[in-house]
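Students often ask why inverse folding is considered easier than folding. One informal answer: many sequences map to the same fold, so there is more than one right answer. In these notes we will look at a single instance of the problem. The structure comes first.
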């Protein structure tokens, strides 16, 4: 006897539709991970809204400063690294030069603190835990400020992806 295949397009589609909900978390995980990795590495430093202030707040939290009203002491390496990019926002005529990128990439954590006024200093510390861990790890590993910023972005993204994947 010859067994005939019962293949039809509708059976294939219905099989796919039945399996798709269980694959959504995996699909999201793969797409989100690649997107976060790409954006964390390829977005120029300090070019997302208030990223300099968020790095300063992360630095504070990594040093145990949980609440502070209007700014606070931060490593002057953050200020120096940001100075190489501070003319870019809202100014399409200004471009970053290779010299600026190289100079910023070489800025290390100095251990010297300066007082800076920044609005995010009043934000709750809980939202800064992944970035604060990144700052602490970057300082411990003697990474540059820019590499530490990238590490903090990756850790923050990893937590967001994990929570979202679990929610799915």
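Output (designed amino acids):
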């Amino acid at each position: 006897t010859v067994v005939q295949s019962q293949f039809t397009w509708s059976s294939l589609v219905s099989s796919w539709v039945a399996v798709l909900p269980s694959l959504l978390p995996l699909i999201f995980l793969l797409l989100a991970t690649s997107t976060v990795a790409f954006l964390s590495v390829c977005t120029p430093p300090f070019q997302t809204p208030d990223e300099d202030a968020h790095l300063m707040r992360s630095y504070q939290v990594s040093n145990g400063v949980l609440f502070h009203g209007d700014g606070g002491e931060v490593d002057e390496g953050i200020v120096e690294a940001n100075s190489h990019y501070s003319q870019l926002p809202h100014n399409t005529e200004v471009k970053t030069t290779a010299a600026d990128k190289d100079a910023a990439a070489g800025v290390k954590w100095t251990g010297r603190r300066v007082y800076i006024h920044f609005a995010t200093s009043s934000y709750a510390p809980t939202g800064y835990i992944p970035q604060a861990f990144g700052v602490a790890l970057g300082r411990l590993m003697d990474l540059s400020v820019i590499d530490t910023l990238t590490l903090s972005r990756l850790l923050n993204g990893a937590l967001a992806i994990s929570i979202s994947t679990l929610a799915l």
